[in-house]
Design a protein that fits this description.
Blueprint: H1 14-32, H2 53-67, H3 69-82, H4 93-101, H5 105-121, H6 135-138, H7 146-159, H8 167-180, E1 192-195, E2 210-216, E3 220-224, E4 229-233, E5 237-239, H9 244-260, H10 267-276, H11 286-299
Antiparallel strand pairs: 1-2, 1-5, 2-3, 3-4
């Protein structure tokens, strides 16, 4: 009778043994892990040295330089503009600012206007250490009277808890003051008005000049003059009460002067055009008409 086949013993490969050993070892490691709730974390302390008196002084000095950067820029731009120090390379201040600093017209005058406001704030005895640190904090105040600017800043610092207020806080305070002193704006587009400076530095040299309303805002008007447009508070304007036809005549005169006028003109020519900008009548005399025609032929731009 034949013998039944014998069962062969299953061979165990070294890889299988290694896998089993690794699994057992992993289980042992897991079982030996420490409970996270009772784990101890070692923190290495880093000693922070105090600033010396000299370092504290240097820090304050450098912080002040950063804070006043926009103010110094505005002061420098004002002097460059007023002294026409750009005239050797550029015909107009706007072109110079764009080429030299990358500032468009709006940005240049934002910095100039901001410097005027900070200068005014520094005159207030109650405002000593807390001054604006950015142009955006000043921008909402540029169209206010000097006394109102100081009032707004003091109130904004109070709202900010004695710290430098954000531009949003300043804007909110300005809005409340505007609502408190709101005067209806009755000016019309194309209306001819006389300018009153009333301590507004931006309007320096424009007192008594005529301007044409180009936009009617809540608390101000945008007006066009011989050199550029300005935003003027209602307190700085007085209507000439010209008839519609007379307003159109003045608009035509303004267009003619604007095409001729530029900062690069000789001082004599500029002075003549500025005198035409102070006319208190809605027409040119025969001599004035001839003079303007000559200047147009010599310097005028093709419309």
């Amino acid at each position: 009778m034949p013998k039944p086949p014998s069962r062969r013993k299953k061979a165990t490969s070294p890889a299988s043994n290694n896998s089993t050993s690794a699994a057992n070892s992993a289980n042992e490691d897991i079982s030996q892990q420490v409970d996270p709730a009772t784990a101890t974390i070692t923190v290495t302390a880093v000693e922070v040295t105090e600033l010396t008196q000299e370092e504290q002084s240097d820090r304050l000095h450098l912080e002040r330089k950063v804070e006043r950067a926009f103010f110094e820029a505005g002061k420098a731009l004002t002097e460059l503009r007023d002294r026409r120090l750009y005239r050797s390379t550029h015909k107009a201040f706007d072109e110079y600012c764009l080429d030299r600093f990358g500032y468009n017209r709006s940005r240049s005058y934002q910095l100039v206007d901001a410097a005027v406001v900070v200068d005014n704030l520094q005159k207030c005895p109650q405002i000593v250490d807390i001054l604006p640190t950015a142009e955006g904090q000043v921008r909402p105040m540029t169209k206010l009277e000097p006394q109102e600017q100081q009032e707004v800043w003091l109130r904004a610092v109070e709202v900010a808890g004695g710290k430098v207020p954000t531009g949003r806080i300043v804007k909110d305070v300005v809005q409340r003051i505007m609502e408190r002193t709101q005067v209806p704006n009755t000016y019309q587009l194309g209306e001819v008005c006389q300018i009153f400076t009333k301590d507004n530095p931006e309007l320096r040299g424009k007192g008594g000049c005529w301007a044409i309303v180009s936009a009617v805002n809540d608390f101000s008007c945008s007006v066009r003059m011989w050199d550029r447009e300005y935003t003027v508070g209602l307190q700085h304007l007085k209507s000439y009460d010209y008839l519609p036809a007379e307003c159109q005549q003045m608009q035509a005169i303004c267009d003619r002067i604007s095409r001729v006028y530029s900062d690069s003109l000789e001082e004599t020519v500029k002075s003549l055009l500025q005198l035409l900008g102070k006319l208190n009548r809605p027409y040119l005399t025969a001599v004035e008409e001839k003079l303007l025609s000559v200047l147009e032929s010599e310097y005028g731009k093709i419309p």
